[in-house]
Write a structure and sequence with these properties.
heterodimer; A: 194 residues; Rna Polymerase Sigma Factor, Chain: A; Arc Repressor Mutant, subunit A; 2 domains; 10 helices; B: 266 residues; alpha+beta; OB fold (Dihydrolipoamide Acetyltransferase, E2P); five-stranded mixed barrel; transmembrane (chain B)
Chain lengths: 194, 266
């Protein structure tokens, strides 16, 4: 019998090893990521809640099928984010469409964090800043938006983002810097217009 | 929205459809295949580099003024483009395979290309030192002379211009180092006079020697040699059975009976 309380102390890697022996353990791994990945899917796509659930289910089945391919040198979170990211891309490929119209809702804390990183916080009122940031995030290029989402919304570090997007860490750094510049430009433009 | 338990649904699906994780060996097989293909590409690239060294080292630098108006022009004419393209293709193949290894994406393209080039240069240098570059050139020029002459080493034709003073071929018989008969690329026989020629002391002037010359055409079949050198890259062409069949015999004829000429293979 699996004791749910004991599962809390297990690392992701340990749960992967246990799942390979008994699929019942997989539930505890999924529980850890269910909400996070649902939010992630909704952030990087414009799908409905039902579609997001479908994508997430497909992602989890794919994770299970490929558990033996999980590289212990990676963080499990990077690996599962990567599979989710790829599954969203596959979803759009199947529909022969590209994601448009994002729902990036910034919490007050996130808006502060992002604004402070962009060094724009002092200049404008938080409400206006939050609105402008949300609009700016929807306007910038997809490649910039995805790194911003992974860094600021999902809280991943450069190495983890590199492992999710399968790009060198240096390239991720460059993308994040460019993304911030684009955001600054967009926010500046919007404030001037306002 | 999102109000049901996805994790439990997924587990139920897995149980009902009897979904199992793919066996570890399938992933290992794919990883090994990628690494083996990468190593293979690196070795092929290194072999190409060893031929490049061989061809560049034996590029007739000492007589470039006779062959081309200027050194840059000579370099452009004589670069071993076929092998350089070959090396580039396999360097890219190394990069492609490396990128598809589990952590290959962590490295930038210039770093992977540079590392691949350095490895090809080092390994190619070792292979050249072991005589592999020369052996590849010999085998290719002997087994596929037409392809070799047109694609691999078109500069061979620079030495098939007797009217302009360039001649390359196989010595058929020799009376000392000054007078001998030579069969050229196009299976024409020449009477060579080498009384005023500079000949490297190590070069044997005897039947079977493969040489190239700079000099003057003195008649229908006469040539006065001023500089004589051994044939480097492409010398295998002069060993091809079709070539040895004798004057006028096309290169694709492989046996004495195929040719009407006198023939050199008995």
């Amino acid at each position: 019998m699996i004791n749910p309380e004991q599962m809390q102390d297990k690392t992701d890697q340990e749960l992967v090893a246990l799942t390979l022996e008994n699929q019942g353990y997989f539930l505890y791994l999924l529980k850890r990521y269910e909400d996070k990945l649902k939010r992630y899917i909704l952030r990087i796509s414009n799908v409905s809640g039902d579609e997001a659930e479908d994508i997430l289910q497909d992602t989890f089945v794919k994770v299970y099928r490929n558990l033996n391919d999980f590289d212990q040198n990676l963080k499990f979170s990077s690996w599962i984010y990567r599979i989710t990211h790829n599954e969203v891309i596959s979803h759009y490929r199947r529909r022969q469409a590209r994601p448009e119209g994002y729902r990036l809702e910034l919490s007050e804390e996130l808006a502060h964090k992002l604004a402070s990183d962009l060094d724009t916080e002092r200049e404008i009122d938080l409400g206006l800043l939050r609105d402008n940031l949300e609009a700016a995030l929807s306007n910038i290029d997809e490649k910039y938006r995805e790194v911003i989402i992974l860094k600021f919304f999902e809280g991943l570090d450069y190495r983890e983002i590199s492992d999710v997007l399968k790009k060198p860490v240096g390239t991720i750094g460059t993308l994040i810097n460019r993304a911030k510049n684009k955001l600054r430009e967009e926010i500046g433009e919007k404030i001037r217009v306002a | 929205m999102l109000n049901h338990d996805i994790s439990r649904d997924v587990l139920k699906t897995i149980e009902e459809k009897h979904i199992k994780p793919k066996p570890r060996w399938t992933f290992l097989l794919k990883d090994y295949a990628i690494w083996i293909l990468g190593a293979f590409s690196l070795i092929v690239g290194s072999l190409a580099f060893s031929v490049i060294i061989y061809m560049l080292k034996n590029n007739d630098w000492e007589v470039y003024r006779h062959l081309s108006g200027s050194l840059p022009g000579f370099v452009v004419i004589t670069m071993p483009y076929f092998w350089l393209i070959f090396l580039a293709i396999f360097t890219l193949a190394v990069h492609y395979n490396f990128k598809h290894t589990k952590t290959g994406y962590r490295y930038r393209l210039p770093a992977v290309i540079a590392a691949s080039m350095v490895l090809s240069v080092v390994l190619g240098g070792i292979l050249y030192g072991a005589g592999v570059g020369r052996a590849i050139d010999d085998v290719l020029s002997e087994k596929a002379p037409g392809f070799y002459r047109v694609i691999v080493n078109p500069r061979m034709d620079m030495w098939a211009r007797p009217d302009q003073g360039f001649l390359l071929g196989l010595i058929i018989d020799a009376e000392g180092r000054e007078d001998f008969r030579l069969l050229d690329f196009d299976r024409r026989l020449w009477d060579i006079s080498a009384h005023d020629a500079k000949i490297p002391p190590f070069l044997k002037i005897e039947a079977g020697s493969r040489i190239k010359m700079i000099g003057d055409k003195t008649g229908e079949n006469g040539f006065r040699a001023l500089i004589i050198m051994p044939v480097g890259p492409g010398r295998g062409m002069l060993h091809h059975p079709g070539f040895m069949l004798g004057p006028g015999c096309p290169m694709d004829k492989m046996a004495p009976g195929d040719c009407m000429g006198p023939g050199f293979i008995k």
